[in-house]
Specification:
117 residues, 19% strand
Length: 117
């Protein structure tokens, strides 16, 4: 079973490598959750994205967004070869209790309110 999981992980990474020329990429929360579960395999690969302008992680359809985390290894895999890319987290509407959705976390990470509202 472990071998099958590693094989599936490698296929998933290979799929992303085929998108290496992408400039704009949106991934859903389930993808991030999956990559968080295969950190050992993920750490064996470098980021395939060297042309990213913007990476969006869409959490807007998740009811349990507060339970989802993104380990540094996942962030490194996705953004390491595109250090100037903008990182956006699209949050669900129930996060509207926050007053400022444009919080700057560091020079290339921002959080924005869901566009569905």
């Amino acid at each position: 079973m472990l071998l099958r999981m590693e094989e599936h992980a490698r296929k998933s990474i290979n799929m992303l490598q085929k998108l290496q020329t992408a400039r704009y990429l949106t991934l859903n929360a389930d993808t991030i959750e999956y990559f968080s579960s295969i950190l050992d395999v993920l750490s064996q690969h470098s980021s395939p994205f060297s042309n990213l302008i913007c990476l969006t992680i869409d959490y807007s359809m998740r009811e349990n967004t507060y339970k989802v985390t993104m380990p540094n290894q996942v962030m490194k895999f996705l953004l390491d070869n595109s250090p100037t890319a903008t990182f956006i987290m699209k949050l669900p509407d129930f996060f509207n209790v926050m007053e400022d959705y444009n919080l700057k976390v560091n020079s290339h990470i921002s959080y924005f309110k869901s566009e569905t509202s």
